[in-house]
Amino acid sequence: MDKNILAINFGGIGDEIFFLPALISLKKEFPNSKITLALEPRSKSVKDLTDIIDDLFLIDIKGKNKYLELLKLIFLARKGKFDIAISSGGNKFISILLWLTGIKKRYGYDTGNLSRKLLTKVVPLNKNQYACAMYHDLVTPLTNHRTHLPEVNIVPQPKRPNTVLIHPGVSKVSVQKGCIKTVGAEVWAQTVELLVKNGKHVILAGGPDDKDCIETILNNISCKESENFENYYGKTRSMRDLGELISSAEKFLCSDSAPLHVAVALKTKTYVIFGPTDDKKLIPQSDMVIPIKANDKCPLKPCLWERRLTTCDTIDCLKITAEDIAAKVME
Q: Which pLDDT tens digit goes with each residue over 195-223?
C-alpha cells in the first residue's frame, strides 16, 4: 500500500546517515511510499547519498527563529497530507509537535505519559547501543524488516592497492562549541610521514572546515613531493565525491565525523580516532571498523554527550601518538 511518510530527524550529517537504515526498512515495507525527511539545512547533503529520500523539509531549529521554523514544519506537515509521521529525539516536546501536525499515525520515543497519550505508538529510547539500531527502533511498530547498517547510493570504485586515505578533520561547529574529538594537526602530520616512510601510498583529503588542519599538516611534512603522497584537499566537492574516494581506498583513517559513517556504508576498512566519545555507540561491532584510543584509563571516559557537553581541559583521552596510529593502520 502506498504511504506518504514524514520522518523528522534533527542533527548533523552523521545523524542523518545513522537514520538511513530506519528509512530503508520503511521503504522495504512500503515500496511505493514517498518519504520526506525534515532536517537541519546543514545536513541536506544526505540526499546526495541516497535515493530513499524523495523530498526534504529544511528546518533551521538551531537558528534565531527556532519557533517560527517549527511552525513552518507544522504548516508543511499539515499541507503535505502525510499518512505516517516518525520523529527521533528524546525531548518531551516531540510528541506535542507530532500531534500538532495532525498526521493520523504518529511514532516516536517513549518520553513519559504525554508521549503515550499523543502518539500512536511509542518505543523505548535505548541510547546504549549503536546509533543506527537506536534510530531503527522507531520503525519496529511498522515493519519486521531489519537494516543494520547505512546504505548509500554510491557505485564503489576499484580499490587502489596499498592506499591509506586520511580525512583528519571534524566539523568546525563542534570545535567552536568546545568539542575536541581528534588529535592535533601536528600528530596527523607525523602519522602521514610514518605511513609514507613505511611504504604506504597516502592520500590526504578534507572539506572546507578542514582548511586550517590541512595547511598545518602540509606545512609539517617533508614527503609532499613523494610519489607515495597525494594531496586531494579541495578535489572532493560533495559527499558523493568523497564517498567515491573512500570506496577506492584500501584503508581509511579518520576522526569521529561524518566521513566515518560513509565509510561504514561503503564497507571500506576504516580506522577511527576516538577520544571523549563512545565508540560502541558510533561504530558497528565489526572487524571492518577499528577504533584507535588512548590508554589513559580516565574513569569518566566516554564523557562527551554522556556526562558533559564540552571536552575537558586536559583531554588525556586524545593523547594518542602518531606511532600508535601508524602501527595500528600497518597491522
A: 999 999 999 999 888 999 999 999 999 99
CA distances from 16 to 137, 152, 162, 258, 312 (A): 15, 12, 31, 9, 27
Q: What percent of the chain has pLDDT over 70?
A: 100
DSSP string spanning 123-191? E----SS-HHHHHHGGGTTT------S-----PPPPPEEEEEEEE----HHHHHTT---S--HHHHHHH
- The per-residue pLDDT for 193 is 98
Beta-strand relationship, 4-8 and 34-39: parallel
CATH code 3.40.50.2000 for 4-139? yes
Report the C-alpha gap between 118 and 86 in whole angstroms. 13
Q: Which burial class, exposed, middle or buried, applies to 324 when counting CB atoms under 10 A from its CB (0-12, 13-18, 19+)?
A: middle
pLDDT tens-place string over residues 284-294: 999 999 999 99
Beta strands in 65-200 (DSSP E): 84-87, 105-109, 121-123, 160-167
- CATH 3.40.50.2000 assigned to 160-330: yes
Q: Where in the chain is the domain with CATH 3.40.50.2000?
A: 4-139, 160-330
Can you give the pLDDT at residue 52?
Answer: 96
